[in-house]
Structure formats: structure tokens, C-alpha cells
Specification:
The protein is α+β, with helices and mostly antiparallel strands. It has ten helices and 15 strands. Belongs to the peptidase C1 family.
């Protein structure tokens, strides 16, 4: 893995140059993001990471290089530090917060099992920030011929292949008696009819699991739209978020549109950073709460990046609106309580056996500590202790597009980052 990352760099003939230093607010944003990612690494560190020091000397060296609109700082070129640089075109699309937000999301691109970025993804900028031996850094910004150019340099070096950036806090492994056989078949097929509708469900205490002896939650009969197919695009985050919008709307407003309500995942893929290379749930809700999201008929899914982003629909067609969104913590009890109100979108880890799932109650064969996929939880069976998962890999995968995932453990890391759901 290269220690110098150059992203979205174009071969450009520069005919003019305007150097743009950070404003004080921008610099404070850079420092705040670094402090936050270092203080609250994802997944959690076994021991606190040493705080980083912002070094103006490093920043000045990088700024001198970036002001020429080409090349890397001597610190990076001489192998004494790590560096990333991004280009934004046009400069009007650039903001420091958006840049740092995109880097923060790269934690989901890191594969802790092989200690490297997942294939065809970017994670080095995030990796440099959380690398345990890095102690200081400096950043710079320039405007080059109408394009924004930002970078940061870190000392000492980090981001080495096969080396963990820090020691992850270990989650205790469940005992064998807590873990059902991965391929075991439920003794009875889970009912597709919710035994409790929203109007029938009592309001449980947020801190306790519902006390029913045989609680069954299953929203698939009338409140879950058809299984979709994300295709060859890492857009699970868009599908999981949009599916929650559809289901929660049907629960709130009646299910007469269950077979026809179809919102645009492509709208999210086109408008949010990384697109087919990954994203996160709450970013979808943040981006589309105010402008609303398009319907599929106005912005059909293409399974590709690079499509124009629009927060309006053609020909003044209406958009789909929601009030806001809520979240659950990393508590199983809290997730189950919220499932009684409707489906919840979560992240989890997908391994080879997950991809080959076809039936039965599944559990990951080892304990994972991060996530690489997003799904919608549409139900829970207390008697056999499993969740019902809606995936976005077509009806040809799993049990007609669904999975029964063991809730007896969190081997697949589904609870770690909590869940999200829209509100109406």
C-alpha cells in the first residue's frame, strides 16, 4: 500500500493560480475532526490513542508545495511521513467539513481481517489519522485554477499493509451454548404476519427487552416493499436507508402502496460522497431531510457513480419527504424495542458464508469488530432469538432476499454502531 495517496488528480495545464489559506474556522474544523477521530476511533481502541499535535511547521512545508499546484511535500517524498491530497472540481463544491466527513467515513472501508483497505476502496487518509504511532500533523489548502486542493501530512509514517493501526478493544466471544448452529433450520417457518401492529404494540421501557413470552415482530406482510438489487455497486447504504423510508411511511400512512412505493437509491448514490464505494446511513437522512428524495420513476437506479446530483425532480414532480430520523444505541434491547415501531437500518459484517446463505438461522463463524454492509432489520423472533434481515441482493439470494440472523450473539457486529430509522 503506497504511503502517498493521490485521489481524483487530473493532468492539468495551470494558466493561473490563486493560493487559498485556511480560514480560522476551517482550521478549527480540521483540528476538531482529527481530535474526534483520534478520541473515538471506530472500532474502539483497547487503550486511548495519544492525541495528535497540530504542527504549523509541517503545515508550512506542505503549503509551500501545494502553492505550486503540483508535487508532494519533502516530508512525504523523503519517506519520513505520510500524506494525502484531494482535488475538488469546481472549487465552489469544496468545504473542509465535507472533506473531513468523507475521510471519517473511510473507517468502513478498512478490512480488519486482512489489515488493509477493502478492494477498490480508499481508506488511507483515515488510517493515517488513527495510526497509533503518528504524533503530529499539518494541513494546507490552495485554490488552483478554479479547483480546490487540500492535503495533510503526518509524522511518523503509517498505513502499512498487514499492520493494525491500533489494538482494537476485544468483544468477548459468546460461549458455544449461546451460538446456534449456522445452518440450523427454524423449527417452524417464521410467520409473515406481524403479531403486533403499531397500534397494538405497548410502549416498552427503552432500557428493557419486551417481556412477552413469545414476542414476534415481522413487518413483511404489507409493510415492507419488494426486495431490490443493488447490482455491481457498493450502494447497500442507500438501499438500506431508502427501504427504511418506504417501510416507515407505510406503517404511518397505511400500506395501500406497498407494491408500488419505490424511492430512488440513485439519487443518494449520485449526491453523496463515494457513491458505489460505500457510505453510511445517517448521511442519507441528513442529505434528504430538507429537499426530500426522488421517486424511482424520476431518478431510476443505474448502479454507477458519476451521474448528476439533483435535489429537485424533473418537471416539478413531487419528492418524498420525512420529518427527521432517530437512532438506537449498541443495545440489543433497544433495537428490539424500536423494531416494534418499524424496521431499522443497520450495518454489519458480511463474510463468505454470509454471501452463500440460503436458509436457516445464520451466525458469523467468528467475532467481527467492524462493518462492511448495510441491511434493513424487519423483524425479530424471541422464541428462537433471531432477527429478520432484508438484503438488497435480489430475491435470488438467501431466503427470497431475506436472512434469519442469530440474535444470540453479535458476531456479525450488527449492534456495534447502532441503528437508524426515519421519522414521519
Amino acid at each position: 500500500m503506497s504511503k502517498i495517496v493521490l485521489l481524483n488528480l487530473f493532468i492539468i495545464i495551470f494558466t493561473s493560480l490563486v493560493v487559498g489559506q485556511f480560514t480560522n474556522d476551517e482550521l478549527q474544523t480540521v483540528i476538531a475532526y482529527h481530535n474526534y477521530l483520534r478520541t473515538y476511533p471506530s472500532p474502539p481502541s483497547a487503550t486511548p490513542l495519544t492525541p495528535l499535535t497540530y504542527d504549523q511547521g509541517i503545515a508550512d512545508i506542505l503549503n509551500k508545495t501545494m502553492s505550486t499546484c503540483s508535487g508532494w511535500s519533502p516530508i512525504a517524498m523523503q519517506g519520513t511521513g505520510s500524506e494525502w491530497q484531494y482535488w475538488w472540481n469546481p472549487a465552489s463544491a469544496f468545504s473542509v467539513a465535507s472533506q473531513m466527513d468523507m475521510i471519517a467515513e473511510q473507517s468502513f472501508n478498512y478490512d480488519w481481517n486482512v489489515l488493509n483497505c477493502q478492494e477498490n476502496t480508499v481508506c488511507l487518509p483515515w488510517l493515517y489519522i488513527v495510526w497509533s504511532s503518528v504524533s503530529k500533523y499539518g494541513c494546507a489548502k490552495a485554490i488552483c485554477n478554479g479547483q480546490a486542493h487540500m492535503g495533510c501530512t503526518y509524522q511518523s509514517q503509517g498505513g502499512f499493509d498487514g499492520v493494525a493501526p491500533y489494538q482494537v478493544k476485544v468483544t468477548p466471544t459468546p460461549t458455544p451454548t449461546q451460538t446456534p448452529t449456522p445452518t440450523s433450520t427454524p423449527s417452524s417457518t417464521p410467520s409473515q404476519t406481524p403479531t403486533q401492529t403499531p397500534t397494538q404494540t405497548p410502549s416498552p421501557s427503552p432500557s428493557s427487552t419486551p417481556k412477552s413470552d413469545s414476542l414476534t415482530i415481522d413487518w413483511r406482510n404489507g409493510y415492507v416493499t419488494p426486495i431490490r438489487n443493488q447490482g455491481n455497486c457498493g450502494s447497500c447504504w442507500a438501499f438500506g436507508s431508502v427501504a427504511a423510508m418506504e417501510s416507515r411511511y407505510l406503517i404511518k400512512n397505511g400500506n395501500s402502496q406497498v407494491s408500488t412505493l419505490d424511492l430512488s437509491e440513485q439519487n443518494a448514490v449520485s449526491c453523496l460522497p463515494n457513491g458505489c464505494e460505500g457510505g453510511w446511513i445517517n448521511k442519507v437522512f441528513d442529505a434528504f431531510q430538507s429537499p426530500g428524495i426522488a421517486y424511482e420513476s424520476d431518478n431510476p437506479y443505474l448502479a454507477e457513480d458519476g451521474q448528476p446530483c439533483s435535489y429537485t425532480s424533473p418537471n416539478n414532480h413531487p419528492r418524498f419527504f420525512f420529518n427527521g430520523y432517530g437512532s438506537t444505541s449498541n443495545s440489543k434491547d433497544e433495537l428490539i424495542n424500536e423494531l416494534q415501531n418499524g424496521p431499522v437500518t443497520v450495518g454489519l459484517w458480511v463474510d463468505d458464508s454470509f454471501q452463500l446463505y440460503s436458509s436457516g438461522i445464520f451466525t458469523c463463524s467468528q467475532v467481527y469488530t467492524t462493518t462492511n454492509h448495510v441491511v434493513l432489520v424487519v423483524g425479530y423472533n424471541q422464541e428462537q432469538d433471531y432477527y429478520i434481515i432484508k438484503n438488497s441482493w435480489s430475491t435470488q439470494w438467501g431466503n427470497s432476499g431475506y436472512m434469519y440472523l442469530s440474535a444470540a450473539n453479535d458476531n456479525c457486529c450488527m449492534l456495534t454502531y447502532g441503528g437508524y430509522y426515519p421519522t414521519f
